[in-house]
Task: structure prediction
Amino acid sequence: MKKWWIVTSQTYMRQVKSWSFFLLVLMPFIFLGIGVGIGYLGMNSSTNHDKIAMVSSNEQLRQQYIKQNKDDINGKYKTEASAKKALKHKDISGYILIKTDAKKVSANYYGDQNLSNDVKTNLQLFLGQIQQNNNLQNAQLSPAQTASLATNFSLKEHVQKQKSDDSTIRQISFWILVGMVYMILINYSSITAQEIASEKGTKIMEIIFSSTSAVKYFVGKISGVMLVILTQIAVYIIGGGIALEVAKKIDLTKDFMHDNSHLVNGVVENLFNVNLLFLFLGVVIYTVLSALSGALVAKAEDAPKAAQPAIMLSMLAFFATFPFVADPDVVVVKVLSYVPFFSSYFMPIRVINETVSPVEVVVSLVILLATILLSSYYIGKMYKGLMLQTDDRGFFKALKSGLSYK
Amino acid sequence: MLKVEHVSKQFGDVKALNDVSFSIADGEIMGLIGQNGAGKSTSFHSILNFLKFDGDISWNDAPISEDVFDQIGYLPEERSLMPKLTIEQQIVYLAKLKGKKAKDIKPQIDQWMEKFAVKGKKSDKIKDLSKGNQQKVQLICTLIHRPSLIILDEPFSGLDPVNSDLLKQAVLAEKANGASIIFSSHDMSNVEEVCDSLVMLKTGNVVLSGNLDEVRGQFGKTELFVATDWSIEKLWELPMVNTVEPLRDGRFLLRLDSEQAGPAIFDQLTKGHYIEEFSQRPPTLDEIFRMKVGEK
Result:
């Protein structure tokens, strides 16, 4: 087995088996689940005492109504006396009493609050239907006349795509994307710097470097972290896809998803395209920088300090995007969309706003990828010199010494 | 065979190694001794290519590079393992980096743990082990891939006499398998017991080297242990006696200017006196060390 791959798999397995990774990856889903759960519980608890009973001497009619309105009706109470008692004990918010004779259907509602508009509309439709059937029967019409009267009107909705929707889609897509880049890279910058600094402190590097070359070890380490990042993104893609499908089906969210399908689909399209590649490579280049920073400290306790250059640079790039979110055509955005460390924030602005050609996107990606490969190789070359220093000579002196290591 | 030829290394104004040369044959154990800062660790770091140096170092006539890393077992001076791994994970990971397969190493772990009397199970985490057991696990990591060049930096440091014996047995077993072994130590008794040869360093310079018996022979049988009723003052008056040191058990240690003074002293001491013991020996390695590195 290739030695760099041994380092990669060891780094990967140790990270993904840790509780911190498990929590980090699952946290968004846990919050989503808690949110949906609270919503569901709220809905359920309010439905229980908001439900009303249906009472009628015509059991067939009663069952028909309950079947059509099972979300609103508590079918437990069959008689007026039991419904009255339940209302008194606040087990139901009211009851409907339907009476029928040969000519007329009449309904009375008794309750401690008004009927909701939905229930009232459904009840009116139901009663209208029954009354109409009765009327048609009493009028003794011919089948042709009956069919003619059954003809209904037609209503179709034709909604045009609005420009204001697209702007919202772009805004939401951008904030989700840069938020993800920022959060993920802050996390991995810290993890990488901490891991490398802690190894330096323990001097296990002497054993490692008597077994494999520093370049292979460094590349293996970065590859391991890259696989961890890919795993996290994959979990988000799969989990996000499942969550979307579930949201389209459950009562709590299906109306929202249906009403905002254009917005949701637009945001999803903006996230699951080349921007995902910029997210991934952006996190990787900051991870490489953090690895260098981690190798420059003398002991593990200084690791948070070591992650600072990567975190500060990331913050700078993150906040620098704010003025240009809706203004993707200015020169600053165009230039920074090619500059490594910035391109992962700025190119997505142009991609989301559709103001960049595929060629420009590819050029930016090639520059970013080449920077990652070259910097990894270069840092790998001086990695041994940096990792074998154990005296606390300060950040810049250590860097100078590492750069001069041959 | 490991060959170190004319190796020099400078750190700023400090010359850490100055024209150091030695060699270790297959199946030979060499002790590298010297005070703190004498250049022992720098020598090891040079052999392992951690440092750039002037001179030549070769293993079986080839420069030491990544190609021969799998043949090397190295124990650094400061112990260090990955605390979150289990014993088995740690041993397998480092053995895999030495080109071994996990399926070949795993079945051997129990046997090695038994050999070094490691307390605990192989599923125990490194961080939960005592310092001594961590040290033994690190020794297993150094030896389990059967290296042909073994470099041990202060391997006896922190080990109690029982565990020191276990290590000595392991080192001698590797020697029997044909490995070339070099180790540094502050404890000269360990070097005397285990080593075939030694190199003594003082401020980066080799001040003494060679086969252990030859080295001791260079100093002659200048130590005389006697049990006599002579007073210490009278012993001082004997010819060619440099120092007289009373020992705890009523004996005396006389250091002579020359081995040849022995017979004349024997004649004088036995004239009309009974002597219980008269033993003439070369100085111990510890004494040689003190003489050569300047501790008086």
About this structure: Chain B has ten helices and 14 strands. The radius of gyration of chain B is 23 Å. The interface with chain A takes residues 45, 48, 50, 52, 66, 69-70, 72, 74, 76, 78, 80-85, 93-94, 96-98, 101, 141, 151 of chain B (CB under 8 Å).
